[in-house]
């Protein structure tokens, strides 16, 4: 009932997609079926993609095995992600009622083609059907990037597998051409998501999601009662079919304000400044022999710790957060507790 809201959302997601350098088939302006939609959070986008993947896999498997019941097909479906992926990926599996395997990444915390291929082949031998893979660009704990390009090749060998890319935090940096090498292989994905509300100066909630074939989502979600029918059906995206809730807010407006107010150049400056500040802090850590850097610094996140036990680092975090000046969030990988400094505010300065 609000064509202006729909129209602005279509245009904003095309603008944003162009800023990131997304392949044309994700954009509405390509004239194909692809396009973008604003979800509430990345957790929602992961679940929506999983439900689309499930709908597509069931449709294809029914054609190959008409004798199988829906329950039999469902019990065979299995999805995959890096064990360092956000907890919402695991939750999407629970909500979607399918098995989801968290795979142990390599020693650089990356999910690679070999690890994924081995897991998929093992499951196929057990009679299971791989249908969904989440590749994380910028893991929550340490901002590590899965090997998207080679994962895309593994997924491409199987018609039933949907590749979803979750770049919730780090995706904002792709507006800077020098960081796009980290999303190499994005053209092999079926869906892509990042959160402008994390690092692109847009107020919560605004999670941008692009789909090459939204019809699978629409098929999964579409119930069309008479009171929701209208004369313009089919002439524009019916965004209620692209998401879990029926109603939606006019979130494209705040995106429009930020893009108009800052312009691409200033948004790029904002991202580059934060990354430079993170490296500035990294330098301080390296100059102090009591501390060490725990993971490589790529974006505005610095993972560091005292060269002491987990308990001492926990005590340090309590002290810092207890003062109420800055707030750090810890994490733990391979039973090592470390602190994470994330540069988030537009008011943070070198001094």
UniProtKB/TrEMBL annotation:
The EC number(s) attached to this protein equal 4.1.1.28
- According to its UniProt record, this protein's enzyme class is lyase
InterPro entries from the xrefs?
Aromatic_deC, PyrdxlP-dep_de-COase, PyrdxlP-dep_Trfase, PyrdxlP-dep_Trfase_major, PyrdxlP-dep_Trfase_small, Pyridoxal-P_BS
What Gene Ontology terms describe what this protein does at the molecular function level? aromatic-L-amino-acid decarboxylase activity; pyridoxal phosphate binding
Please tell me one Gene Ontology term that the record gives under cellular component. cytoplasm
Name positions with the PTM N6-(pyridoxal phosphate)lysine. Answer: 198
Instruction: Please give the PROSITE patterns that the UniProt record associates with this protein.
Output: DDC_GAD_HDC_YDC
**CDD domains per the record?**
DOPA_deC_like
Please give the Gene3D superfamilies that the UniProt record associates with this protein: Aspartate Aminotransferase, domain 1 (3.90.1150.10), Type I PLP-dependent aspartate aminotransferase-like (Major domain) (3.40.640.10)
What keywords tag this UniProt record? Catecholamine biosynthesis, Decarboxylase, Lyase, Pyridoxal phosphate
Q: What's the cofactor?
A: pyridoxal 5'-phosphate
The UniProt subunit note reads as follows:
Homodimer.
**Family, per the entry?**
Belongs to the group II decarboxylase family.
For this entry, the protein name equals: Aromatic-L-amino-acid decarboxylase
Q: Which organism is it from?
A: Acleris semipurpurana
């Amino acid at each position: 009932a609000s064509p202006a809201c729909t129209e602005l959302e279509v245009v904003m997601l095309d603008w944003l997609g162009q800023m990131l350098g997304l392949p044309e088939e994700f954009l509405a302006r390509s004239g194909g079926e692809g396009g973008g939609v604003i979800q509430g959070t990345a957790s929602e986008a992961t679940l929506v993609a999983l439900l689309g993947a499930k709908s597509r896999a069931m449709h294809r498997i029914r054609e190959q095995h008409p004798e199988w019941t829906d329950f039999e097909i469902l019990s065979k479906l299995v999805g995959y992600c890096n064990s360092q992926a956000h907890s919402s990926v695991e939750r999407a599996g629970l909500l979607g009622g399918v098995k989801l395997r968290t795979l142990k990444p390599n020693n650089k915390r990356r999910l690679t083609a070999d690890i994924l291929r081995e897991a998929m082949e093992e499951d196929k031998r057990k009679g299971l059907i791989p249908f969904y893979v989440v590749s994380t660009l910028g893991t929550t704990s340490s901002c590590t990037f899965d090997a998207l390009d080679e994962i895309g090749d593994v997924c491409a060998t199987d018609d039933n597998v949907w590749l979803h890319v979750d770049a919730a935090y780090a995706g904002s940096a792709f507006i800077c051409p020098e960081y796009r090498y980290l999303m190499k292989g994005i053209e092999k994905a079926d869906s892509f998501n990042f959160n402008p509300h994390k690092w692109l100066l847009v107020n919560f909630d605004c999670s941008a999601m692009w789909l090459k074939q939204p019809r699978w989502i629409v098929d999964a979600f579409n119930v069309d009662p008479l009171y929701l029918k209208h004369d313009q059906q089919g002439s524009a995206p019916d965004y209620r079919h692209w998401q879990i809730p029926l109603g939606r807010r006019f979130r494209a407006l705040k995106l429009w304000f930020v893009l108009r107010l800052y312009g691409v150049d200033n948004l790029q400056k904002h991202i580059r400044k934060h990354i430079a500040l993170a490296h500035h802090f990294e330098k301080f850590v390296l100059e102090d022999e009591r501390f060490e850097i725990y993971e490589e610094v790529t974006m505005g996140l610095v993972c560091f710790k005292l060269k002491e036990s987990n308990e001492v680092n926990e005590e340090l975090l309590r002290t810092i957060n207890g003062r109420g000046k800055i707030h750090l969030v810890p994490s733990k990988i391979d039973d090592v507790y470390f602190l994470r400094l994330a540069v988030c505010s537009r008011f943070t300065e070198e001094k």
